Amino acid sequence: MTVVALASAAVANAQPSADLPLVPAPREGAALPAFAIGRGIAIDGGATDDDRFAARDLAEALRARGVPVVTSGGGVTVRLLRRDTPAGRAALQRANLAFDAAMNDEGYVLVAQDGRVDVVGASAAGVFYGAQTVKQLVDGDGPRARVLGARVRDWPAMRWRGLHDDWSRGPLPTLDYQKRQIRTLAAYKVNVYSPYLENVFQYASHPLLGAPLNSITPQDARELADYARRYHVEVIPEQQTFGHLHTVLRLEKYSPLAERPHGHALAPDDPRALDFVRTTFAELDSAFGSRFLHIGGDETFELGRGRTADRIRREGLGQTYVDYVSKVVGALRPLNRKLVLWGDVGTNHPELVATLPKDLIAVPWMYDNVPSAEKWIKPFRDASMETWVAPGVNNWWRVYPNLGIALPNIRLMAREGQRLGAVGLLNTTWDDFGEQLFESTWSGVLFGAAAAWQSGDCDPDVFLRRYPRVFHGDAAGHVEAAERDLMAATALLTRAAGTEMHEQIYWMDPWSDEGRRLTPRILPLASELRLRAESAIEHVVRARRAGALREPGALDAMELGARRLDLIGMKFQLAHEIAAQYSLLLAQGRDSAGAAAIKWYDLADLSGINGRLQDLRDVHVENRVLYETAWRHENRPAWLPNVLARFDVSTQLWVSRIERMNQVRAQWARTRRLPPPAELGMPEVTDAPTPAAR
């Protein structure tokens, strides 16, 4: 029997891979009996600098969880081996496992059995990824942790597995947090991190650019890229070269380059546009040193609405777009980098895809839950272009990411991308209105990591059961329950409001014209929305109390998202109750008998100790404190006042209404008269309950 046949037989005779609760799930895996760590875990890092780094990374991760790591004499020995060494060959022969050619670049073999864990890779990346799997096989924290037995042969389905992170719409992570992102992404076998740049890089050739106190230096970029390489992560900067450049073009110096004054897109016929591209990308290339550069190119909505209008009428929008992209590629060719382009042209003008430069990498993006993604991907496959696919974590416009859309979307794009020949997946976060927290996106980010590594279909339900154990250290199901409650609450709010712009609803005054329009839609589902959100809060608290504390920032962001959803439901409920009760009191007070029946506490219930108006003030303040804490955990402070100002405006709205209602109480005490609701800015509720019902 050959070694490969023995490998197949050995895997077939063990437990199915479903018994290995790993993220990503391995290509081939079988569970074996678990074993105790005894006096600790000893790690042999092998003979190369890369493998010794992988050993140190493994040791640091285990120590952070309180797992004893010893230099020798441990109850468990972990060996990181290369396939072409005597020890590596012996380990493979002993396990009757072998390498396929597909495993050479990033694959590994792992056997965890009877107090020993052997990881064998053909490359530094393979050994490193095997070590990341070891982290997950160490089950539990502290000295009572154990090692799950396993036999694994594993390699990725997609060569490039990435995260695209929006640095340009407000939240800009600190350098320390960016490094933490790199470590965490690498632990789940992600090998691309692509920061999105509009005007947050400090260019020597453009000293006016780089938002004050909210931009990164070339030194920061170089340090991050060097740091990421140790973790086998490529940092690919995206600097927009066409649209999405308003924060540059609003500057008077750069406005002449725009399609329209102070607009959003560069004018493609202005030669200074290409000068801007050349100079910025030369500096990005020097700072990041990546094999790739991302030239953006999405959502050029302004094209043809200004200086190029006549050309567009003559030649067409698509042709003008393709011509400019080709010029950008030509201008950057001396850098000798692979250029990455968003795939808008494939959707908008598929007939022109074949005319694009063939050495571009196309990234079709699509963020919805639809039956098929073929129409986004196929134009590039048909043109024989290298293609990556881009799903999204659906965090934009939300107070918490909508996983009910994100997970199916990521699943679809990964599965269809693999089927249609895409070699990469670039999962995306977007911070459109500047208040998103990255810590709230980890579940969507890690599902993207799993879907890109695993071959074929990646089941969100399986992921939601597994990821809390390996990421949070929660084996009791609290985090999964919280995530499912948040998914349900988000779906309820979308159904009730008829929109996914939940941030807008969060800041909405329920007594405004738009708030009054939404009130009858939201009220019927507000109780269920709140119960789901409050259940999520309870599950987060239980997870903390049970010791699931590996990722406190992510739990904090989850709780904050739940509290913001709860506030939305509460705000519409209490605002309606206040208006209804006031309308009832107003009706009662129109005759002397009714007025005599009104007690001081009827108005105090609206504004007083524990009054409903005070409730709305207090909860906005609570959310503000939690939000500021969560922001400072990950981001630089410069943009934060923009968001806190919205909390303050919302809080002050209810403070002013408290003061006005207190004046009404004083007026009532003197005159036994109440002003009409319109004078207080509230609607009159004509179907208010009767006094008996109240």
TrEMBL record:
Which residues belong to any copy of the Beta-hexosaminidase bacterial type N-terminal domain? Answer: 21-155
Is Oxidoreductase a UniProt keyword of this protein? no
Instruction: Describe the location of the Glycoside hydrolase family 20 catalytic domain by residue ranges.
Output: 159-369
Q: Where is this region: Disordered?
A: 675-694
Task: Alphabetically list the UniProt keywords.
Answer: Glycosidase, Hydrolase
Domain of life per record: Bacteria
* GO CC aspect terms: membrane
> Key word Lipid biosynthesis present in the record?
no
Short name of one Pfam family for this protein?
Glyco_hydro_20b
Query: Could you provide one GO biological process annotation from this protein's UniProt record?
Result: glycosaminoglycan metabolic process
> Which reaction does this enzyme catalyse, per its entry?
Hydrolysis of terminal non-reducing N-acetyl-D-hexosamine residues in N-acetyl-beta-D-hexosaminides
The record's annotation in InterPro entries points to: Beta_hexosaminidase_sua/sub (IPR025705), GH (IPR017853), Glyco_hydro_20_cat (IPR015883), Hex-like_dom2 (IPR029018), HEX_bac_N (IPR015882)
Q: Which residues form the active site?
A: E299
Supply the name of the protein: beta-N-acetylhexosaminidase
